[in-house]
């Protein structure tokens, strides 16, 4: 008879005791040196007339030092908040301190004298320099630095308070989104980064190759050139959607937050070569409106959590439009008519004239977000089938109203950033999917052979169900929430055409 054991019973008491002691010591170590954010937050809870003082030790980095005859004042930050904590030092304690130096300071936290900018300050009893910063060479002195200048040193720019705030925004958002999907029984998955196909069909892919396969053959010709690592061409993923569809037919609703790569040479404030996409696939959904509901609920939940957090209060231009009662939903055809009418009434002069067959340009999306949404997000649905990928499910379009067949898809547009989410219902019927792929010239010869996409067609052969999903440009979303106009400021180490510094 096999004895059944729970996991805790497999851990001996002799192991648990040292582990618990270790955890207590770790707790004592971290709690004895609180973050500057927690120190400042604790002072907000004290009465205005409180004269109490508290002994504490902090770790941080010198943002600036003002040296006077009797006292010196150091602004200390640790990345946990944009606000520094002012430390009051003696000239001897401040000797050798400079902007950028890493320090550990112990002392008494006291209320500042009346008229000071900060309510509390740390009167130092001990100052230790942990890591020096040469003031002659340290590039981030206390002055204004342009975004262009900071992009030249991505390994250092997160030391700027606002850039560290953006890192915390990213962390908070990931945590909240993870909770949102977990609460709704979505399964988080890790689809592959290296793939056999171009999901979007745009050809803007990076090809993967090992170094040995790139070496030219020797002049003698005696040695054969090595075969490619994967036997044939493979690519860095442009979207994990196709793999998510496979997983959704196994475990139900799934989601992922994964890096995505596109070799498009767009040198704009909205494009990167490497970025993060949050992608979701839902099984047993019949209408694209059900997918839209998930998008709206997800973004509302994130915005609400930010509004209630200290992090949200620090965002200088935090967006509240996600919390408005309802988001407009218009069809693509209605969007084109709105744009055409705006031009006819001379409200706007577009560089690219609205054309039903050519899709929406960035200037069109911006106009729709600002006018139809009136500052809030707006959904645009039912785009022309001819300008969308092969996997989208046709929608019931009235060709007396539209200029051709449409698909059950959508984009979510927000002011300033334009499109942040795109999604659709997927074609789940085998015959219709195969016919559509053949019409696009995706079959090899006259056979029903779709090469690297044969496995995707297989999904429709056995137990295929109606399903849909979406992809959210995670970095674009963060840029919108933070009020940042250029996506390159949101990504810590941005890569775009011609640029990959470190």
UniProtKB/TrEMBL annotation:
Example of a GO biological process term: mitochondrial asparaginyl-tRNA aminoacylation
Keyword annotations: Aminoacyl-tRNA synthetase, ATP-binding, Ligase, Nucleotide-binding, Protein biosynthesis
InterPro entries: Aa-tRNA-synt_II, aa-tRNA-synth_II, aa-tRNA-synth_II/BPL/LPL, Asn-tRNA-ligase, Asp/Asn-tRNA-synth_IIb, NA-bd_OB-fold, NA-bd_OB_tRNA
Originating species: Xylona heveae (strain CBS 132557 / TC161)
UniProt keyword Nucleotide-binding, yes or no: yes
Cellular component terms per the entry's GO annotation: mitochondrion
Protein's name according to its UniProt entry: asparagine--tRNA ligase
UniProt xrefs under Pfam families: tRNA-synt_2 (PF00152), tRNA_anti-codon (PF01336)
Family per similarity comment: Belongs to the class-II aminoacyl-tRNA synthetase family.
GO terms of molecular function: asparagine-tRNA ligase activity; ATP binding; nucleic acid binding
The protein's Enzyme Commission number: 6.1.1.22
Domain of life from the UniProt record: Eukaryota
Annotated Aminoacyl-transfer RNA synthetases class-II family profile domain residues: 177-494
The keyword Lipoprotein is annotated on this UniProt entry: no
């Amino acid at each position: 008879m096999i004895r059944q054991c729970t996991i805790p019973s497999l851990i001996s008491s002799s192991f648990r005791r040292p582990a618990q002691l270790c955890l207590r010591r770790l707790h004592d170590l971290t709690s004895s040196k609180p973050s500057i954010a927690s120190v400042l937050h604790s002072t907000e809870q004290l009465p205005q007339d409180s004269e109490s003082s508290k002994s504490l030790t902090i770790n941080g980095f010198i943002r600036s030092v003002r040296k006077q005859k009797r006292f010196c004042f150091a602004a200390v930050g640790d990345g946990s908040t944009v606000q520094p904590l002012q430390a009051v030092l003696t000239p001897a304690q401040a000797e050798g301190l400079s902007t950028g130096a890493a320090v550990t300071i112990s002392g008494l936290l006291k209320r500042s004298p009346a008229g000071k900018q900060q309510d509390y300050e740390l009167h130092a009893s001990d100052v230790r320099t942990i890591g020096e910063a040469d003031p002659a060479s340290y590039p981030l002195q206390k002055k204004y630095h342009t975004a262009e200048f900071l992009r030249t040193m991505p390994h250092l720019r997160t030391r700027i308070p606002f850039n560290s705030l953006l890192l915390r925004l990213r962390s908070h958002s990931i945590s909240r989104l993870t909770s949102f999907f977990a609460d709704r029984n979505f399964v988080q998955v890790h689809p592959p980064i290296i793939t056999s196909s171009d999901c979007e069909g745009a050809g803007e892919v990076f090809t993967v190759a090992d170094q040995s396969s790139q070496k030219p053959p020797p002049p003698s010709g005696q040695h054969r050139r090595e075969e490619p690592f994967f036997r044939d061409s493979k690519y860095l993923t442009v979207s994990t959607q196709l793999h998510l569809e496979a997983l959704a037919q196994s475990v139900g609703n799934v989601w992922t937050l994964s890096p995505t790569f596109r070799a498009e040479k767009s040198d704009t404030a909205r494009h990167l070569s490497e970025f993060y996409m949050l992608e979701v696939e839902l099984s047993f959904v019949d209408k694209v409106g059900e997918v839209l509901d998930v998008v709206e609920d997800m973004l509302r939940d994130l915005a609400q959590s930010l509004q209630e957090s200290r992090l949200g209060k620090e965002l200088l231009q935090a967006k509240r439009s996600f919390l408005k009662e309802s988001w407009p939903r218009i069809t693509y055809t209605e969007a084109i008519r709105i744009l055409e009418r705006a031009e006819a009434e001379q409200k706007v002069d577009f560089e690219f004239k609205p054309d039903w067959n050519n899709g929406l340009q960035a200037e069109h999306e911006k106009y729709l977000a600002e006018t139809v949404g009136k500052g809030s997000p707006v959904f645009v649905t039912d785009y022309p089938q001819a300008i969308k990928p092969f996997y989208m499910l046709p929608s019931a379009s009235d060709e007396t109203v539209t200029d051709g067949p449409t698909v059950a898809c959508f984009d979510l547009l927000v002011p300033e950033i334009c499109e942040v989410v795109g999604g659709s219902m997927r074609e789940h019927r085998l015959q219709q999917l195969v016919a559509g792929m053949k019409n696009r010239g995706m079959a090899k010869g006259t056979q029903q052979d779709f090469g690297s996409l044969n496995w995707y067609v297989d999904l429709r052969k056995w137990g295929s169900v109606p399903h849909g999903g979406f992809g959210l440009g995670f970095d674009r979303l963060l840029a919108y929430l933070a009020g940042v106009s250029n996506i390159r400021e949101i990504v810590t180490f941005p890569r775009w055409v011609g640029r990959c510094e470190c």
